[in-house]
Amino acid sequence: MYRRQFLSLVPVAAASAQGKKKSRGKKQEVPPPPPPPETQVKEFFLEITRGYLRNAAKTSPSMAAVEYPNATITKNFLAKSGLSVTGVTRMMPAMAAWVAGGREPGLELTGALISAFRNGCNPRHADYWQAAAPKPFDQRQVESSIVAWTLWLMRDRILPAVSEEDRRNIAAWLASCTQHPVRTNNWALFTAVNIAARMRLSEKWPEFQADEQFMLDDLKVIESMATGDSGWYNDGLTGTAYDYYNSWVFASHFLYWNELVGSRYPEISKRFSERLSRYLETAPLFFAGHGGHVLYGRSLIYRWGVLTPLVLAYQQKLWPHSPGLLRRIVNQNILYHASIGGFDAEAGKLRETYTPEGSPAIKESYIDGGHPYWGMQAFAFWRIPDADPFWTAPEEPLPVEKSDYAIALPEPGMLITGRRSSGQVRIFNAKSTREDVHYRDKYNKLAYSSHFCFAANHDKTHAPIDDVLALRDTRTGETAIRGEITSSNIDAEKIEMDYSIRLGAVTAQVHTEIPFLGEFESRLHNVTFSGGPLEGIELVEGGSAYSTLPVYKEAHLKTWSLKGWKKSGREDATGSVLFAQHQVQTLTAPAEPKLFLASMRYQSPKALPKDKIDGEASQLLSRLRL
User: Fold this and answer.
1) Strand ranges for 86-170 from DSSP E
2) Distances (CA, A) of 34 to 20, 28, 30, 328
3) Cβ neighbours of residue 565 closer than 8 Å, sequence gap 6 or more
4) How many helices (H) and strands (E) does the chain have?
5) pLDDT per residue over 558-599, tens digit each?
6) What's this model's pTM, rounded to 2 decimal places?
7) Under the phi-then-psi rule, with left for phi > 0, alpha for psi from -120 to 50, and beta for the rest, what region is 575?
8) Contact 288/294 with Cβ under 8 angstroms?
């Protein structure tokens, strides 16, 4: 339903202008108005939840495992029976929020949760979740954080309803997940939340015990990943990776910890809260006019997981914006993902691809059929009382619906821009790098757009060419894009960066500068080659991935070759995370020992009038001084 509505309504102006005829003598039927966004969101949540319950019941009467039709199954978190568990644990927080918010009638989720805890934590049951392995980085450690959080939310409903032996089993399973530190990336927050929940549960239930020092050591290492006081965390002690894990782990799991035990550790809570406030100040800038956010980085099938810390912060009075803005962000983002087919209604499951047609390369090797449900934590807003301004205050427009903007975020190395006339938001990335083939295309492009979403594949030798500068062997088609960024500079008008591209024995050292104006950008590359021979090697610069689908009916993309490029063209390709088959406008030039290459591109999902396009093009050209 949602996807068909999306394709029929976008672009609204173009669709409404077609096929209008005056009727004579017969009164036209006026279709009923759509229900309010809040009602649509509720119905979508119920559809997802019913799909989960239906599939879980088909999988096992224990409700401790769930396998979806044609879903990926990995060995990362299997019950003793061999059935997959991830989809269960990742639905738990949303189900608990629904019950805790007093919305239980109609779904009866308490019984499903009790069954999952009782059976999943029982070593004698076939669907026992099994204790975490006696080594770090077991997927159970990740899932234990939201299992523990769910148990805390449902403590007065679940723990009195199960036996003392059941409570010991639940406590033992949770404790097994905090025996080995995982302190090299965001995982340290999972064990910290697990322990914090058990600390609180132990106040009433003696079966639960926790190692406070283990938790404090976790938090200490997480603080070492913070980039100053910017609110951004590098996801790891080595490398450079700033992405949406800032939302769906670093921010969200601090807020779980904060609600559980933050008052006991006021100094720690204060430091984390101050960083969080700076992140939340700019968080609304990432949301586009259609409601979606810029797709960039890994684990993107967590979809509306970007909303989780926004909602949790609001509940803890840490949200720095209005309730009306938060509700618009929440409603628009969830409904956008519904509209593009993120939920497979027939199978009753969230997709492992972003859309029905989208490239499967959006998935990482760790993704299984339950992984997309990490985003369900965003439904924490069911705990917000109905009389709260979150539900009653008028929605307020997104930043991109009010004005154009360009904000430099030097710490994560991003320039984020928004265009009011089209609703497009873009991220220019000048710092983060991931060279693993499962991550490469999600970090290493020059820019990422809310509307012209990137292409990806897992082919080590044939990288996609959208929004990159690449080396290509014209004889074999082998293509390589940049590696690590060695230096960069970001301000509100441009980004600059130095990096290298390696293809076989050939290395290109590149300095790229991208000045921009509105939806125009110029790409200036100083390139020096080493190694060789250079015969048969060319440089390729690709524009954004686009399609002829109706959604791009008002789009306009144009490329100008300003200096150094020898050919321009358009190439067909596959791998777009939204629609697989796509096209890319390209510029090419044969490799020479030294080259200066300059181009200008206009890439808009809703073009300006021609006179304004010409005016902005002239204005940007005057700044280049070529």
Assistant:
1) none
2) 21, 18, 12, 16
3) 541, 587, 588, 589, 597, 598, 599
4) 20, 17
5) 999 999 999 999 999 999 999 999 999 999 999 999 999 999
6) 0.94
7) left
8) yes
